[in-house]
Amino acid sequence: DSHTQYERVGADVTMKCGSMDWDAAVTWMANGTDIDESHLNGSYLILKNVGLTQSGQYSCYEGSSWHLKYQTNLKVGTPPKEPVLMCRSNNYPKGFYCSWHLPTPTYIPNTFNISVIHGTREMVCEKDVFPKNRCHIRYIQLFSTVKYKVTLTVTNPLGKNSTTLTFDEFAIVKPDPPESVVAKPVPNNPRRLEVSWQNPSSWPDPDSFPLKFFLRYRPLILDQWQHV
Predict the structure, then answer these.
(1) What pLDDT score was predicted for residue 142?
(2) Is the peptide bond before 93 cis (omega within 30 degrees of 0)?
(3) Do strands 40-41 and 44-47 pair parallel, antiparallel, or not at all (unpaired)?
(4) From 119's CA, which of 10, 84, 147, 216 has a CA 20 to 30 Å away?
(5) Cα distances (Å, whole numbers) of residue 114 to 61, 125, 146, 192
(6) 210 Cβ partners below 8 Å, 6+ apart?
(7) CA distances (Å), 32 to each of 27, 29, 71, 96, 210, in order?
(8) Residue 172 phi/psi, 5° resolution?
(9) What is the CATH T-level fold of the domain 3-77, as seen in this structure?
(10) Which domain of life is it from (predicted)?
(11) Measured distance CA(41)–CA(8) in Å, rounded
(12) Alpha-carbon torsion 217, 170, 90, 205, what sign?
């Protein structure tokens, strides 16, 4: 008999030796190392105030025969805290993406479920292969005044948590930075630099949706920026 047992950090954990009686003579091992009998209550194994280091394989053997009766894989962790969710459109007007992470690790597997609602319509957020905690939405109508509502729920064997964002389409538009930025000296003019750049390659239609660029500069010895 073998299974996985999830417990919270700081909990008191009781493990039974499968279907063995409480007064049966047994021996327990953790990751192949004998466990002191002071941790036993009859055939039950009692772990007080468990910590992350106590995760591992626990095995119970019958009396003097050393017949393996039961195994459990103990995984110690925490319920998820409220996840951090961010949505952004860097390729307007094609769509937007949402990405997420947990503020602190749980040390056990988590499952994320995201729902995107536009008005009364539920939309599919297509998961990206990389990065893994990201999915993207394709716009179905441009210049919509209907808000988007994105809810992210995280679940693990010890609990669940969620967060919700509500926003207008235009409020999350944020292009990526310009690419191929080059600064070159101007011949015969030591006080001048020629700076060139290109639109971010992720921006799909700069003709219909032109980008505005801001440039600032300063000599390294000064703290003040100059703006162009």
Answers:
(1) 82
(2) yes
(3) antiparallel
(4) 84
(5) 44, 7, 19, 51
(6) none
(7) 12, 6, 11, 51, 65
(8) -110, 10
(9) Immunoglobulin-like (2.60.40)
(10) Eukaryota
(11) 21
(12) negative
Amino acid symbol at 108: I
Distance CA 199, CA 120 (A): 36
pLDDT above 90 (res 162): yes
84-172, what's its fold? Immunoglobulin-like (2.60.40)
The domain segmentation of the chain, as residue ranges, is 3-77, 84-172, 176-227
**pLDDT (tens digit per residue) in 23-53:** 999 999 999 899 988 999 999 999 999 999 9
Cβ(199)–Cβ(189) below 8 Å: no
Neighbours of 101 (CB within 10 A): 13
Cα(68)–Cα(28) distance, rounded to whole angstroms?
A: 10
Amino acid at 113: N
CB 176 within 8 A of CB 203: yes
pLDDT per residue over 74-101, tens digit each?
999 999 999 999 999 999 999 999 999 9
Nearest CA to 174 among 99, 122, 224? 99
Instruction: Provide the 8-state DSSP code for 225.
Output: P
